[in-house]
Amino acid sequence: MQDVCAKQVYLFGTCLVDVFFPQAGMDALALIEQAGVRVHFPDAQSCCGQPAYTSGYPDEARRVAWSQIRLFPNDWPIIVLSGSCAGMMKHHYPKLFERGTTQWAAAQDVSRRVVELTDYLVNDLDIQLNDLGPAIKVALHTACSARREMETLQCGLALLDRLRHVQLMNHEREAECCGFGGTFSIKHPAISAAMVADKVQALLDCGAQQLVSADCGCLLNINGALAHRGEALQGEHIISFVRRRCEGGV
Amino acid sequence: MRTAAQPTATGLEAAQPVVVTQSPFKERAQAALCDRSLRQSFRGAMDFLTAKRAGVFDDPAEWQALSQLGEHIRQRALSKLPDLLEQLEHRCQQNGIHVHWAESTEQANQVVHGILAQHQATQVVKGKSMVSEEMALNHYLAERGVACLESDMGEYIVQLAGETPSHIIMPAIHKSKAQIAALFAEHLPGVPYTEDVDALIQIGRQVLRQKFLDAEVGISGVNFAVAETGTLCLVENEGNGRMCTTVPKVHIAVMGIEKVVEKLIDVAPLYSLLTRSATGQIVSTYLNLINGPRRPGELDGPQEVHLVLLDNGRSQAFADTQLRATLQCIRCGACMNHCPVYARIGGHAYGTVYPGPIGQIISPHLLGLQATPALPGASSLCGACGDVCPVKIPIPALLTRLRTEAARPANEQPHAMRGQGANANLRERQLWRWWRWLNTSPIAYRLLTWLLSRARHHLPKQLKPWTQVRTLPRPAPKTLHELMRQRTGRTS
Amino acid sequence: MSAKANILQALRQGLANAPGPLGDSDYQAAIAPYAFTHADAVTRVKQLLCAAHAEVIDSTHDTWPADLTRVLQQTGMPATLLAPQTDCTLALRAYWADRHDVPSLRLFDQAIDCWKADLFQIDAALTECEGAIAATGSLIIWPTPQAPRTLSLVPPLHIVLWQTRSVWNTLFEAMQQAEWASRLPTNALLVSGPSKTADIQQTLAYGAHGPKRLIVLAIDEPCP
């Protein structure tokens, strides 16, 4: 468990947030600092290494993982903006290194300190949210690996539950994969397309005005499919939505 | 090819031999995705089975404890596998069961055919057995003039249609009742078209009852074989398994070498996990514990029982401490019932006897990675399969490992699998090397992401196959790295 | 080398790079959720059997022949009832001796090979059972030389006499407490309803290949 009184944390943005959802990183920073915690963003961070790892290139993943592990020398929690990347760092980093080596020990240490963002906000900071926005119907999507490896579904739900005017909309087969799966969506485009088509239809059918998720790979996939269909609905990182609500935005 | 007289029509007299499709996985998947009726069949069945399973595992604490026990029992058995197999053989022989060993499906087929030839048997009934599918036993026997009739209703339907099972528990899951009605009306003399399921089942019952009576030999699979007692356990609902193993004079059981458990009491928790995971039943109609042929003084049961132990690539999986978990499987099919890929492409698209996630991790051992190069990658690694596995096989981790084995150069040591390097591709390897360099070189990484953000309006609009159903995402005007640097007052 | 030697050698080589054999299992999970009193266990067996489409008739040691006869009369009398050579059969035979509206009683008293085709024409069969399992509503049937295994399989109607004093909470406890491992018959069986299938579009249909109907006479007092 994390030290609740920890006053300093690391922020790991993830590569997709870096390029596609940078505002989510800034919003996370703002919300954590509002709670009186100092945030460190190691400038040399890049990707967690998951794409190579799941594609069958563990050697490349190991090199990238090692370059990231060294960025977090102090014993502070490492807050990760995406559940699936957090899962990689927490559950797979130690597996990449030979047991008993210094690298393995360092990977273990990082693994112990990794916390997914919504988990941190809800369970460590117990963040209180003052929802200034109008009533809105929201659907939540949780990445499969985040749901299963990090159990962040409950954290996402808990976070939304702290926004008074937000009504959670359940969509059909909420637990089913959106079809992203990293390189799966590129290697098996037809199957992935069928999966995202069903996910998008379920989201549209549930009557949500807004889609949120803490997982940017899924968001790129689902948003891309929504846009391709010409739908107005678009998903955003849950942290950006939460911060906007607290500042009175729609 | 049949030489035997056929006292009753089974409808199979003109059946085509099973056509093993040669088209690659992607083509079959594509075809399945376009087949509305097929997709409805699978989606409906998967939703049904998923809900049924959830209903019988409604206590998470019990599920957790029981699946942990199941995992331990299977791992314990595997940790002593060679000794347990020898003990099983010894106990079976004490019980009067003849035990045969086969390294390959060819050897196993020869053993079975040899027994049939000894008895001059031309009519055989078979209970559901995936190992016999693995052996393509029906085909092998048909070529040698022996009619081997499937007696499980689903298997019978599939055989009648000249197809292969699309699911390991519900073989005809891909067919609607209208399709089955048409199949019966077309192939069975005097049978009118009816979509009444009770009527269809009674038709099947009548045809097959005569065959149980006539057959000289019955063939079955084995769900669990108990080393302690030399017991062959069969789990079923229909009673055809009991018919095949009780009524004919000879019973031949075929099983993979991994199916052995150490003690009789191990069967109790595994049986509960199996039926609940497979079809959401707290128990099947029958659990049949076979301990040998008819003993002196007994009035029925087979006079001869044979057990064929098949390796067929299992010892390869066994030799690797990680891949060994593949052999924990108790063949419940829950992984396919919960797989979003299987639900959309169905069982036949995989092109292997075992479809779905379990097929994706076992088939590369049975056939070699060179014959199954697409299987390890055909998963989004969503983890649903691993979640519902009653013996906790880490299926996603095994898929990842198989991807690694398929991507490694064929000559690299150590060599864990037949077909290593099936997907080895210099271009892809270079790409990942470049990716690694980029992500371990902070300046290069920041430069590239900066370039992406600045070129956001000039990036290509099309990037197939991604953009066939999706709009390409556009990078934000500034990267998070930039925003952070601005905030801390530094410049890049 | 033989296939056996090759397989065992491959497996033993495979074992070399793994930790040693695993120790015993804690089987608590197989038992824990299913602790019932005797009365609850009996009730549960009846409920689960009924839910599985079996018919359960409450009866007693003295009245079961009459109860059985009444049920057969109510539900379409089979022409022949096949039975083993046991005390129960004698009791039924005595009860039916001077009655007309009863099936003819045929004993299973010769090897199946002599009359297999006839066996497939018989409408109903009677067996006893070793007991029942409360967790799953299953009957334990251990065929003996006096009670062959096809009795509970081939005729479309299967009638089982169950002494309700004989009930275990779980299969695990039945196996362990009754020491199955040291005394298994050639074919031990659990039966949890009439045969069924859902192989056509998940639609449940009864009477697949085994019995179409299962009638259980639950005998609530011990046999003398």
UniProtKB/TrEMBL annotation, chain A:
Under the GO molecular function aspect, what terms does this record hold?
A: oxidoreductase activity
Report the Pfam families cross-referenced here. CCG
Q: Which residues form the Cysteine-rich domain?
A: 10-90, 138-222
Q: Please give the InterPro entries that the UniProt record associates with this protein.
A: Cys_rich_dom (IPR004017)
Recite the lineage of the species. Answer: Bacteria, Pseudomonadati, Pseudomonadota, Betaproteobacteria, Chitinivorax
Show the GO cellular component annotation of the record. Answer: cytosol
Q: Which PANTHER family match?
A: LACTATE UTILIZATION PROTEIN A (PTHR30296:SF0), UNCHARACTERIZED PROTEIN YKGE (PTHR30296)
Name it: L-lactate dehydrogenase complex protein LldE
Automatic annotation (TrEMBL), chain B:
User: Which GO BP terms apply?
Assistant: lactate metabolic process
A Gene Ontology molecular function term of the record? 4 iron, 4 sulfur cluster binding
Whether Lyase counts among this entry's keywords is no
- All copies of the 4Fe-4S ferredoxin-type domain together span 319-349
* InterPro entries to which the protein is assigned, alphabetical: 4Fe4S_Fe-S-bd, 4Fe4S_Fe_S_CS, FTHF_cligase-like_sf, Helical_ferredxn, LUD_dom, LutB/LldF, LutB_C, NagB/RpiA_transferase-like
Alphabetical keyword list: 4Fe-4S, Electron transport, Iron, Iron-sulfur, Metal-binding, Repeat, Transport
**Which SUPFAM superfamilies does the entry mention?**
4Fe-4S ferredoxins, NagB/RpiA/CoA transferase-like
Q: Which Pfam families match?
A: Fer4_8, LUD_dom, LutB_C
Question: What's the protein called, per UniProt?
Answer: L-lactate dehydrogenase complex protein LldF
Species, as recorded: Chitinivorax tropicus
From TrEMBL, chain C:
This protein's source sits in the domain of life called: Bacteria
Domain LUD, which positions? Answer: 45-218
Q: Which InterPro entries match?
A: FTHF_cligase-like_sf (IPR024185), LUD_dom (IPR003741), NagB/RpiA_transferase-like (IPR037171)
Name under which the protein is recorded: L-lactate dehydrogenase complex protein LldG
Q: Which organism is it from?
A: Chitinivorax tropicus
Q: Where does the secretion signal sit in this chain? A: none
